[in-house]
Structures are given as structure tokens and as C-alpha cells.
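TL;DR need C-alpha cells for one chain.
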Amino acid sequence: MVESPDGPQIAEGETTALKTTAAARAKPRRLPWPVGLSARLLLLTALFVLVAELFILLPSLGSFEVGWLTDRVRAAELASLAVEAAPAGVVSDQLSGRLLKGAGVVSVAVQSEGSRRLLLAAPRMERAPALIDLRQQGLADFLAEPFWALGPAAPRMLRVVARPQFRSGDFIEIVAPSAPLATALEAYLARTLLISVLVSLVAGGGVYLLLAAFLVAPIRRITVSMERFRARPEDPAARLSPSGRRDEIGRAEVELTRMQEDLLLALQSQARLAALGSAVAKINHDLRNMLTSAQMASDRLATSGDPKVAQAMPRLERALDRAVRLAQDVLAYGRSDEAPPQLQPIPLTAAAEAAAEDAGLSPEGVRLQLALPERFEVAADPDQLHRILVNLFRNAGQALETVEPVEGRLVRLDAVISDGRSLIRIADNGPGVPDRVREKLFQPFMGSGRPGGAGLGLAIARELARGHGGDLELVKSGPGGAIFELTLPVVSP
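>> reply
TL;DR here they are.
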């Protein structure tokens, strides 16, 4: 409760509500504005067309005023000819009034050869009329004079000077009241504004319909597809089908379709990785028990004294190690991060021979040919380099399974120092990488070109290579075989 010293108590909740209400009242209200793109487009189109019509209105008003004044001058000029045709060039006051009324003026004067002559005249005026010289009218006067005639400070009389058309002379001068001009300008302005509004609405509606058909509707279709895909990415109906347009909208549709496909594959890969991690964790638990039993059995066999058993024991141990390493590789990729490599100088020849033995390369099957400089070393983590080479050799050996004759199956490894990096090339003479998997060769679960393959070996190898600050790329593939290029740091001197 909040107690006032001079009044009753007010609850804290009521105080908060009062503050919120006061803050809401103090916040300035925003002008209403359509939310939808189509409504905004319609309003903006109509507005721009109306603004364009207003720009056209300014010179049209000036042209209307000049035309109206010119008509008065020509009518007065014709009336002046009637005066000159009269006997002695003099007409009665009654005829003069009719001529002036018919022309819509109050006086007419003509100047010829420097002499000015008043042909028709009304009673004298109390105030001098405003001058409008149609012979030398500038652009500013042309645009401003209509509004000056419509304004509250407009003069009552106008003195208009123009060149004669039906007679000779320097100029013809009339004096006319401004009220009829203002009335005509107001009527013309009202008609023009009405026509401008109608034109802006019609043009705006037409432009809106065209833009809505060619722009707003495709954007709405793309937006709906994005919303449906976000809600249910596995639903095939949520993915956008490109319309085949060749403009920016068509390109956006194609890119959105590709992005949806890539995102769906990534989501599927994550789901498979999650399921794989759970499955491998269970498998490893059971596998450790199996390997413990196998190691106990191998220990008993090692004490048997049989030469054949002793000869087979190293192969049995390597087979068990490969099984454990395979499970560890899958677990390592399923982890969110890889252990940072512990770099140290490693002789590449010894590392390649050990990896080839674990990958199943042998002189009787797929042979390994080393073309390395003497004592060539790389800076790498021993275990991670071993995993990289085993994956590359194993993939090469599997690709060479269909090559005949068996004696021709070859994996070649060479290395050079280039641009401060160790450049290692692993080439085979197999059939090459299939085109269908080449673009996704290093993506997990997608880069396997062999039935039953998991597609993890190259993905793991590239991740380990990039962890060293290097990379792994497929630089060549064809009927003559595939060449992978492994980049690693050099040994610091």
C-alpha cells in the first residue's frame, strides 16, 4: 500500500496501472499506415501519380491564364477595328460600351510608330491596374501569376500588353477586370484537380494490378513457402516449386528452393548424427565387453607356444584395434568439437606405411607407392594424421576393388613444399569419383559412392585437416583415377 499524507491509501497495483496509463498517454500516437505490401503499393502508386499530375498542373494553369488573356486581347483588337471603321473614327458612348462589354475589357489602346492612341475607354479608375506583358513573360511569372490572380491580394484590374494580330502597330493594350479571370481559373483548377485524382486512381489501380500480378503475388508465394517450411520442413508441399521466370523473382525462387533442399539435408544429417551418437554409445558399451573377452582369449592364445598362433596374433590385434578405431572415428565426428591437434614433426614415410597397413593395403592387393623426398616431415598430430591417411587409403583401396588385374591396383603418395605448406597428393588408378557424389563428397552421410558406405571418412579427414590449419580437396577425378590433395603445416626450422 502507498499512503498519502493528506488522503486515503492507494494500492501499489493501482499506482503501477496509473503510471502505465500515463506513459501510454504520453507516448505519441503513430499515424495509421497499411501493413500489407499490396495496400502500401496501391497508396504509393496513386500518390506518385497525383504528385506527377500536380507538377503538370502548374504549367497548365499558366497556359490557361495566357490563353484567357490572349482571347480578351483578340476580342478587344477586333472591337478596335470597328471603331476605326466608324465615320471619323468616333463611335457613340452606347456603342463603345457594347464593344467593351463584348470584349470583356474596360479600355483598349494601340501604339503605332511610337504614338499611343486610346480607342475605347471607360471612366477613370481609382487605382492603377497591375501590368501583365505577354510579349516578355518569364518562366517564374508564367508559373506564379495564376496563383497571384487567385490570391486574396489580387488587383481588381489588369493591364495586359500584347502584340497585335489583326492590325499593324507596336502593341495593343487592354484593361480588364481580374474577377472573371479568377473565376475561370478556379473552375479550371477544380476540373483539373478532379481529372488528376481520377487519373491517379485509374493509373494507380492499373499499375497496382500489374505489380500485384508480377511482383506482389510471387513475393507472397515465396513468403508462404518460407513460413510453411519453417513450420514443417519435412512436408514436401512446403517446398517451393520455381515458376521458371528469368528475372530476379525467378532467381529468388530457385535460390530459395536450393536453400530449402540444403537446409532439409542439414536437418536430416543432424537427426542422423543424433541417432548415430546414441546408437554408437550403446554399441561402444557392448563393444568394450566384447573386446575385453577377445583380449583375454588372445592372451591365452599368446601363451600356447604354437608358431602359427604367434604369427597370427599381430594381425588379430590390429583387427581389434581397427574395430575400436572405427567406433572412435564415428564418435569423434558426432562430438560438437574436435580436440585441438598437438603438432609435432612426423616422418611422412613411416606415418604413410603405418596407415597403409591399417587401411588394408598390401603388396598382394592394393600397393602403396611412396615418392617422397628423403626425410620428409610434416607438422601434425600423430593420431589425427594417422586417421586422415587411413581414411584416404581405405577409400582408395575400396575404389580399386573393381580394377583388373589385381597387380595393377596402385595408390601413390608424393609430397612437396609449396608456399610455406606441405602439399601431399594421394592418387589412385581407379575409376574415379562418381559425378553424382562429387559435389557432396565431403558432406557426412552424402559423400559415399559405394553401396553400404556411411560417407563419414572424407568428412572426418577434411575436418581434421582444417583443424591443422590446412585442407583436403579433390583436385582431379576421371577414368584414370582420383587425386586428393592434403595441405598441412611445414616443420618449423
